[in-house]
Batch of 3 targets.
Target 1
Amino acid sequence: MSNRRETRDESRFDIDKRRVGVYAALLAMVAFYLAPLESGLMTAFKTQDAFFGSTPFAPPPPSGVTVAPWFEAWSRLQQGVFNSILLAVPATILSAIFGSLAAYGLTNVNWRGQVAVIVLFVAGIFVPYQSVLVPLTQFWTMVDLPGLLAAVPVLADRAQLIELILTHTAYGIPICTILFRSYYATIDAEMLEAARLDGATVGRIYWKIILPLSVPIFAVTLIYQFTQIWNDLLFALVILSDPSNQVVTLSLNQLKGSMVQQYNLQMAGAFVAALPTLVVYVLFGEQFAEGVAGES
């Protein structure tokens, strides 16, 4: 009896040691990955003198705390944030909707030539941004969207932003299609066949069965696309020349001083620019986890 108790105590002690080791490893990983964020946050609340007088990750002394960089960053980025919302929301929704429809047609509807179309979508994912910059610029020059929208001044003023929305929508459709297709392949085919035998059309099956089951993968796609579009700098740098259409990544780039580096201002601006993507992750985090896990 005494030997059994000693054995259990030793086993419990071993488990506790393993648990302590796991927690220590997890804490070390958390510290490693959060160190840049902590350093950026501390820098954003420091005065210039406090920043140069301390290490980046150290908290500022009481005399070196300031919130002025946050107010200045917001005043200089707010127009860019507004334009980025005008860009990212419609481009994200459109690419997700078209990706869902394309994936449904390529997965749950039988027709000839599907493999060739799927290959084209997969190839579209691997086309780098840099390789399409010149053709893209020439294309929008030939289209002359500001001239086409001249009859509607409100839209004409935002013509470059509309060009960027259409560009990101087109560029995002291939990856959205592949994401939706991998999810739709897991949907029970017998359920769809039963709906067809009951006389449901292709459109009705999508609207009544496929779309309600697509909430988790829509969350994954929307978060992915929103983050990609929000953080894009290259397309915006090429297409947007009108300062009134400038998005937040371009505004953030202009916080870099030409003579004096204001690191606290740049860090505060980076957090302001990143805040909307964090909000999206918080709002759709549960659906995102379900979608990544493939739960339908």
Target 2
Amino acid sequence: MPKQKKQNRSLVLGLCIGSCLAIVLALVGAAQIHSTNKVKFCASCHEMQTFYKTWVEAGHGLAQKGAMKAKCVDCHLPEEGLLTYLGTKAKAGANDYIAHIIRKKVDWVAKREEREKYTYETGCKKCHKELVAPGIPIKAFLAHRTYELGETDKTCISCHHNVGHGDLLLALNNQQ
């Protein structure tokens, strides 16, 4: 067999094997992303038990009938494109994993004050598309209208800070 033909066969074989590996890695990666997006996964760490329990009873949790349900990732990962989503997920996951492994003590009460760093407006807006819907109370209408016009620095979580985890401060204080 001529040398050039043998090189072409090797190149085609390499491309086929590489493509198959890429497909397998993509499928495994997608399955891992899907499985780690579940509430059950987040709640599997003992550090998250308080957050899981308060979420279940809160406005978007499992215990609320008729309310819109939200998973951890709906609020704590940005809906700003796949790369931003995956980058934020990887960074947050690595931070949580390292903190778990080294048994880092986290002051959750202090971190609670920074909650706007860990929740994303895009998650709220994904479900709450019509903020000034007819029939809402006038106070809510005025606040949402100001928000939609960009006349305030407040975020969704600034006003609705108990919707994700209820009275998280009380739960954290009872935990100590």
Target 3
Amino acid sequence: MDMKVAKKKLGLKERYRTMTRDLGWIPSCQTQETLYPYATYEGIRIHDWDKWEDPFRLTMDAYWKYQAEKERKYYAIIDAHAQNNGHLNITDARYLTALKIFLQAISPGEYAAHKGFARVGREFPGVGAQVACQMQAIDEIRHAQTQVHAMSNYNRYYDGFHAFADARDRIWYTSVPRSFFDDAMSAGPFEFMIAIGFSFEYVLTNLLFVPFMSGAAYNGDMATVTFGFSAQSDEARHMTLGLEVIKFMLEQDPANLPIVQQWIDKWFWRGFRVLGLVSAMMDYMLPKRVMSWREAWQVYGVENGGALFRDLARYGIRPPEGWDDAEKAIDHMSHQLMLGLYQWSFGTAFHSWIPPEADMDWLSQKYPDTFDTYYRPRWEYLRQCAAEGRQFKNFGLAKLCQVCQLPVVFTEPDDPTQRCHRSLEHDGETYHFCSDGCQHIFEHETEKFIQAWLPMPALAREFDLNVPAWMDWVGMIDGQDNGDYEGSRDQQHFNAWRGLATTNQ
């Protein structure tokens, strides 16, 4: 007599193997070296690709199911935000400056990461690595799309959101993250994984997404909170994967250690320089703040980063070369960069402002050893200039760092009264740097970084210092998208519409 026999259900580990490793094959018509030419040229030695372990054991069918559920919830909230005039629920329109920088600088970076993971997924011989990169490539383009969709509602009411793609490619402050991703995407596949999987995901993500999304909630922006929560589960997976990639390389061959350490040194410093924009957003651009940049660094940099490098010490990895200089810069970098953004506000596709007295008191409390001594006097001088009708503007071209592309506005690690400026000669040309960290990167990869495209020298060369022509090229409308927040159209519109929504006028 026939009996019904229940189909054997695969365990999690078996299912993962069936849906990933068993999908691979060894081609007979071409050699491995021909198919994967970039797997060896960086010098990384991999002896067994089957040792690559995805810590989440996620398969494609489960991936699509989870992502689809998140998409349904996300777009339901975005629709509700738009239909209920969510743009009037924010604290005030100064908050939009943080959103504009995010849209111009970070969202295009997500798209660049998508392209990068799609490429390295093709260049790795191992099936486990290919599947992991494929999922992360899809994650990254989804993040770019949801961020653009979440902020598109603000573009209907406020200035500065309309040309974010041009701003990303052509404005001086967005060239900082752009050069970060261009550098990563022109690197080999293993270095790309350190750049994005470790530096961007592990170092940057915690300091960007967690405090910034909390700040969005504090400031009434539920659209941004929603895309942050939607992305956060992916980010946790990306961070874990980035760490596993480092361990995988170190466990495969001891000869990989010096190469990995050098990449960690480089990409920690490159990521830290990108965080300069994040520090200004946290300390100055959120009308209602969750924590200071210093407090966020203490939690996510010192404590989490310290634990990470204690874990990696068993492989011989030490903390990055620029770690001590980074710690010395924490109490200064947001103030120095915001002062720079204010004096060049005619060249930014967002508004800036002199902090009101209450904000300066908050900064004094959060930075008791530095703000009142070094930065409050400068802001008070700028306030006096504005009161006398002569707003301080710097029409000079700032020297840009050849590596990170930030203006040379930071100070020496051990002396906040001295500007940190390094330079060197190469083939008759002088190159400038904002720090020892950036100069060291240039010295190691000179042929790569002498080709860097810097927007301000391009302004001088291609537009003959014609600022209005440059603004037209970057899609910026002078007097609307840039300049001081006080008296701006964003301020006037928000106050008028908020008044209509909350009074009987």
